[in-house]
Amino acid sequence: MARKPLIAGNWKMNLNHLEAIALVQKVAFALPEKYFDKVEVAVLPPFTDLRSVQTLIDGDKLSLGYGAQDVSEHDSGAYTGDVSAPMLAKLGCGYVVVGHSERREYHAETDDVVNRKVRATLNHDMTPILCVGESLEVREAGDHVEHCTTQLINGLKDLTPEQVRRTVVAYEPVWAIGTGKVATAADAQEVCDRAVRRALADEYGTEVSDDVRILYGGSVKSSNIGEIVGQNDVDGALVGGASLNGDEFAKLSAMA
Ligand code: PEP
User: Is residue 188 a contact partner of residue 195, using CB atoms and an 8 Å limit?
Assistant: First the structure.
């Protein structure tokens, strides 16, 4: 099965409500409808914008996908402030980012928590975008491949091969997120191939690993996306800062 590229825009905790709506419209209308046959493009707004984004996308029958930046590992209960997978599924979310380095760092999310969130997402028929990536310290010690493989295998624990096939993996070196420092295309390919694709093949076989989409994330913009998605094992990008500008996000999406 050919892997359909995915470009996903992680807005993080940015934009007010009107700006969010304007951005969705700009991105959706900047890309020709036919383009979505070839590439999936999705926005990942804060929870508070999801209902409006859903209304806009459904109302105008837009081909743009959307999803959330995090999810609770629990389906319901006394978890003040959390948002569950059934709630997100009801809002029509197609994707959920799980294990972003900012969640791992600021909310102390361990691989076990990440794994439970991946399972909650899949159990409600949404696609997890499982993030893995090393700090600068780990990279400088030369341990980045092993580090990312460990995060990957732990994050996928107890999934069926079919669930693994449906999961998207995002390689996001922590030192490249929001810093303007981009990994070279060769760096991105090395980890996407050695730490992710080959590790998946060893664990689940090539029939599964060949179908899994692997994204690169870390200061991606229109000036560097071409080279990055030109790599054999990079099937798209998870984009932070550059996804907040509609023209830029549409431009880089059109280059995937
Ligand atoms: C991200 O946070 O997922 C990300 C890749 O951010 P940026 O593109 O701003 O580096």
Answer: no
Which of 10, 102, 169, 221 has the most ligand 1 atoms within 8 A of CB, as the residue to mutate? 10
- Collect all residues with Cβ–Cβ distance below 8 Å to 69 and sequence separation of at least 6: 10, 11, 12, 44, 45, 46, 47, 96, 97, 100
| Amino acid at residue number 255 | M
User: What pTM value is reported for the model?
Assistant: 0.97
The number of domains in the chain is 1
Residues 221-242: tens digit of each pLDDT: 999 999 999 999 999 999 999 9
Q: What is the pLDDT of residues 156-182, one digit of tens each?
A: 999 999 999 999 999 999 999 988 888
Look up the CATH number of the domain holding residue 38: 3.20.20.70
Residue 1 placed within a domain? no
